[in-house]
């Protein structure tokens, strides 16, 4: 018997979920936003809420997406940096150690004024180029690779023998002094790696503090991007692809380097789409039309929208609602265009980022699935509270992918 081919469009709106906001009369930004597409999806689909890792555990975006793709993050995760480097297009080896880095602003005494030197950052490529290729003075067998990704973000890779990812951050995650990286175990490799990190951090200040582009930024009333703060040391994860696990041919449209790296690690083809920036100006309609074209070739098309999370970290309620409504236009476009007799549409978030907290929290996130054979459950709005009443109930995010695989008819029966 030949079964008809089905496929999936899977949307993650980064940091979408929130907590009640007093200025919104106790509503969340998702509840306050105008989102007819998302509400329509909830009405025709089945809804629930996901604990991304487990109840009360705030997830990073890396482990969150690993979990959403069906992996056990405790088993496969080897730090953020390796995934960030993959997403930036750096072909790192198993010996390399990679970091996520922020262009930041510090005083001469190394006190951090601003961990993010700007959301709009056209100088990023040239400033990264000024640091790229640095060779350690203390350990000349180690080269440092620097690549700008989006906004204030960079990837830094240490390349050479005898390295370890068991080192701490230099990013203080607040307005205090730049931290010294320290080894997290007693190995020579960790001590060597921490030494190189500290040496490079000082070098980044020396180069960027005197860079003419920063002088131009200050003339325009902008803060100088005069240092790189490193965090999230990591290596390549050890994980099978979605093709190996489920037989899925998958593609993604993602601008954010970290999430793109998770997608590459999962074996997805990365599709470049002009206008998909990862910022507030990202073109969700262009993303939607590109996704529709990919359905002829792929079993799963993954779409990621970042701006909601950026607004949450900034504590900007209006901008978060703006990005929710922008994401809703993508959902509406897809619902109007796909055949729900053949294609599943999945919508969720990777974590809760309350605008009141400005950081990830462990609250569950809403999820909705529409498509062939889905049992709708009477939920009429897509929100944190409404989806909690849905037919999927409350489950760990890593069980979402097996549910989707079963809808596709690709699950194998357990038992006789």
Task: Provide a quick synopsis of the model.
The protein is α/β, with parallel strands linked by helices and 416 residues long.
Structure, explained:
This protein has 416 residues and is an alpha/beta fold. It folds into two domains: 7-77 and 239-407, Alkaline Phosphatase, subunit A; 90-234, no CATH class. The chain has 15 helices and 14 strands. The protein has helices spanning 29-32, 36-44, 61-68, 73-76, 80-87, 124-131, 188-209, 212-219, 242-246, 257-265, 284-294, 307-314, 317-337, 384-387, 400-407; strands at residues 7-13, 46-51, 97-106, 112-114, 134-135, 143-148, 153-159, 227-234, 250-253, 269-270, 300-305, 343-348, 365-370, 393-396. Helix 2 (36-44) packs across helix 13 (317-337) and helix 5 crosses helix 10 (257-265). It is globular.
Fill in the keyword field for this structure.
416 residues; single chain; Alkaline Phosphatase, subunit A; 33% helix; 2 domains; 15 helices; alpha/beta
Low-confidence stretches: none
CATH homologous superfamily label of the largest domain: Alkaline Phosphatase, subunit A
The average pLDDT score comes to: 95
Query: Structural class of the secondary structure composition?
Result: alpha/beta
SSE topology string: EHHEHHHEEHEEEHHEHEHEHEHHEEHEH
Outline type: globular
Instruction: Please give the CATH architecture of the largest domain.
Output: 3-Layer(aba) Sandwich
Largest sheet, if any? Answer: 8 strands, mixed
Q: Order of strands side by side in the largest beta sheet?
A: 10-9-11-1-12-13-2-14
Number of H/I helices: 15
Number of domains: 2
Instruction: Measure the end-to-end span.
Output: 21 Å
User: What is the CA-based Rg, rounded?
Assistant: 22 Å
Determine and state the CATH class of the largest domain. Answer: Alpha Beta
Estimate percent helicity: 25-40%
CATH topology of the largest domain: Alkaline Phosphatase, subunit A
The tally of strands reads: 14
């Amino acid at each position: 018997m030949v079964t008809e081919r089905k496929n999936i469009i899977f949307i993650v709106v980064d940091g979408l979920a929130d907590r009640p906001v007093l200025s919104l009369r106790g509503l969340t930004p998702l509840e306050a936003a105008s989102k007819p597409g998302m509400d329509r999806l909830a009405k025709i689909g089945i809804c629930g809420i996901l604990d991304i890792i487990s109840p009360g555990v705030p997830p990073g975006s890396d482990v969150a997406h690993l979990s959403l793709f069906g992996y056990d993050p405790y088993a496969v995760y080897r730090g953020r940096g390796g995934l960030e480097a993959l997403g930036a297009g750096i072909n790192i080896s198993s010996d390399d150690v990679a970091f996520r880095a922020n262009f930041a602003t510090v005083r001469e005494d190394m006190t951090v004024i601003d961990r993010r030197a700007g959301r709009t950052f056209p100088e990023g490529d040239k400033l990264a180029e000024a640091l790229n290729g640095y060779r350690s003075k203390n350990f000349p067998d180690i080269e440092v690779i620097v690549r700008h990704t989006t906004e204030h973000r960079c990837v830094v890779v240490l390349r050479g023998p005898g390295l370890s990812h068991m080192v701490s951050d230099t990013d203080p995650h607040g307005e205090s002094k730049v931290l010294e990286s320290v080894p997290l175990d007693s190995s020579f490799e960790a001590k060597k790696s921490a030494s190189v990190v500290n040496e490079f951090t000082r070098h980044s200040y020396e180069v960027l503090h005197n860079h003419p582009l920063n002088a131009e930024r200050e003339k325009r009333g902008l803060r100088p991007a005069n240092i790189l703060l490193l965090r999230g040391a990591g290596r390549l994860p050890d994980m099978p692809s979605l093709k190996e696990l489920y037989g899925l041919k998958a593609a993604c449209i993602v601008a954010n380097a970290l999430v793109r790296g998770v997608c590459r690690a999962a074996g997805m083809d990365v599709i470049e789409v002009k206008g998909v920036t990862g910022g507030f100006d990202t073109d969700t309609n262009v993303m939607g039309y590109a996704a529709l074209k990919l359905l002829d070739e792929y079993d799963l098309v993954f779409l990621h929208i970042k701006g909601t999370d950026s607004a949450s970290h900034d504590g900007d309620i209006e901008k978060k609602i703006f990005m929710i409504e922008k994401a809703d236009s993508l959902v509406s476009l897809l619902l109007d265009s796909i055949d729900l007799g053949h294609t599943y549409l999945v919508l969720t978030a990777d974590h809760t980022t309350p605008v009141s907290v400005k950081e990830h929290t462990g609250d569950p996130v809403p999820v909705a699935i529409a498509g062939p054979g889905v049992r709708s459950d009477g939920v009429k709005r897509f929100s944190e509270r409404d989806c909690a009443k849905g037919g999927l109930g409350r489950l760990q995010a890593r069980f979402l992918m097996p549910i989707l695989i079963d809808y596709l008819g690709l699950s194998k029966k357990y038992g006789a």
